[in-house]
Design a protein that fits this description.
mainly alpha; 5 helices
Length: about 170
């Protein structure tokens, strides 16, 4: 009886673990060779930071000029004061700009965190566009993609900074 239960338990755990392994495989971008991952998320994050900075400042300028406007797409954001929204966008953009020039471990951690914050902002923007569906338009696709790339790159930067700290501690010990 105990062997049968162990066999059933093993089968259930194998079935349940497969979706999680597939999810980790996709999210971790493990299908790319390590060299390509290092290029894409090591040096490639600079381009993504610059793109995020430009779009964040563009959104801030637009908000300061005309607020959220009357579009139903921004109805959820209209509850947030424009000054606070603009300040948040500028703060994230400035953190990203600072991280472009600070190549220390602290700069990488801050840059990774700022990319994750930018990704969360773009996720909220993408959701607001989806709440106004139909019709289908580019904002419904572009902002979720930008969100995903920003969060993945930010997470990678933070992981690499933590790995560097760990390697430095083990080397010094």
């Amino acid at each position: 009886m105990g062997a049968a239960i162990n066999r059933i338990y093993g089968q259930i755990s194998r079935v349940l673990s497969k979706p999680f392994r597939v999810f980790n495989f996709i999210i971790g971008l493990l299908f790319l060779p390590t060299r390509w991952r290092r290029w894409l998320f090591g040096t490639g994050t600079r381009g993504l930071k610059v793109l995020n900075i430009a779009i964040l400042f563009g959104w801030t300028a637009s908000l300061m000029h005309s607020g959220f406007g009357e579009l139903s797409t921004y109805a959820g954001f209209a509850k947030l004061p424009v000054g606070i929204a603009g300040s948040l966008l500028v703060a994230v953009a400035l953190l990203l700009a600072w991280a472009l020039y600070d190549n220390s471990i602290r700069g990488r951690l801050i840059g990774g965190t700022a990319l994750i914050l930018a990704g969360l902002i773009w996720l909220l923007v993408g959701i607001s566009f989806w709440m106004d569906y139909p019709p289908l338009h580019p904002g419904m696709v572009m902002y979720p993609i930008l969100s995903g790339l920003s969060v993945l790159a930010g997470d990678h930067l933070r992981d690499m900074a933590r790995l560097r700290v760990h390697l430095d501690k083990t080397k010094g010990a």
